[in-house]
Structures are given as C-alpha cells and as structure tokens.
Design a protein that fits this description.
It is a single chain. By secondary structure, the protein is an alpha+beta fold. It has one domain (2-150): Heat Shock Protein 90 (2-Layer Sandwich), CATH 3.30.565. The chain is built from four helices and five strands, in the order βααββααββ. The protein has helices at 11-29, 33-54, 112-117, 122-130; strands spanning 2-8, 64-70, 84-91, 133-139, 142-150. The longest helix is centred in the N-terminal third of the chain and has 22 residues, at 33-54.
C-alpha cells in the first residue's frame, strides 16, 4: 500500500513536511520510535545529499520524489514483506549509486574527531547502518534509491 507520494523542490521547505507526514504515519501504524527515527534520518540524509551534490549546478534546487510504502504493499516497485517499511527516493540529477560507496576505513571506529576529518562517506555509512536494505537503479535520466527499514 502506498502511504504517500511527495515531490519537493528544495530541502528547506520539503524536509519539515516530510517529517510531519512520517510522524503521522508512524503514530497511525504504530511504528516503533527506532524505526521511525531510522527512516527519518535515512531519508533526510539522502534528500540533503541530492540537493547539495546532485543539484549543485542548479543552486540546490530540483525535483525529489519520495514514495513511502508499508509492508503488504502491491504494485510496481513495491516489495511485500511483513514488518518492513519501504521508501523510494527519486531524483533527476547525475547518476550516483550510494549502495557501492562506503566510508573511509576506520573513519568512525577511531572516534568523532577522526570521522569529522574524513573526506566523504560518513552520511553514506550512516545510511547503510540505519537501513536493513538499500537498492539503487538508474532508470533513463532518473536515480531511484529504495530504502528498507524494519518496522
């Protein structure tokens, strides 16, 4: 079942509305706080990176579509699995597969100061940690990243 389908054009105006929708859905479906938090942080990280890096040539503006799907869903692109929350983020920026990128070795294991000095990948490391599944696909001129979080 599709829970919502939202398109935003910048992070500043789009993320607060997305978080309100997620909180309402979490309350309605009884999602554990940990699952809701993981989904919110994961989506925030994805969307912020899209606007900062993927749409940097357009001043950080461009369409980002977020589709949230609950377990038991049917339809195109939806995976049905008990106790799982699925979300898909789509953008039309340059192709980038975050599932194949990890943080520099030892960046987080050496403590906060080391991770702050790491050149890249900390947000991606966080995303891999929060989500039980990530899938990326480039479809024509569109990036599609699917996130999976246990409910």
């Amino acid at each position: 079942m599709i829970l919502f389908d939202l398109t935003m054009h910048d992070a500043a105006s789009g993320l607060p509305g997305l978080n309100r929708r997620l909180e309402a859905l979490g309350a309605h479906f009884g999602w554990p706080a940990r699952s809701l938090g993981a989904l919110q942080v994961g989506l925030d990280e994805c969307i912020t990176n899209i606007f900062e890096h993927g749409y940097s040539a357009t001043g950080g503006c461009g369409p980002v579509r977020v589709v949230a799907v609950s377990s038991g869903a049917t339809g195109t692109g939806a995976l049905a699995q008990t106790g799982t929350i699925f979300a898909r983020v789509e953008d039309w920026g340059p192709g980038f597969d975050p599932t194949g990128v990890t943080a520099p070795a030892g960046a987080c294991s050496e403590g906060l100061n080391a991770s702050l000095n790491a050149p890249l990948g900390q947000g991606l490391r966080l995303l891999h940690h929060l989500c039980s599944g990530l899938r990326y696909r480039r479809d024509r001129n569109r990036n599609r990243l699917s996130l999976q979080v246990p409910a």
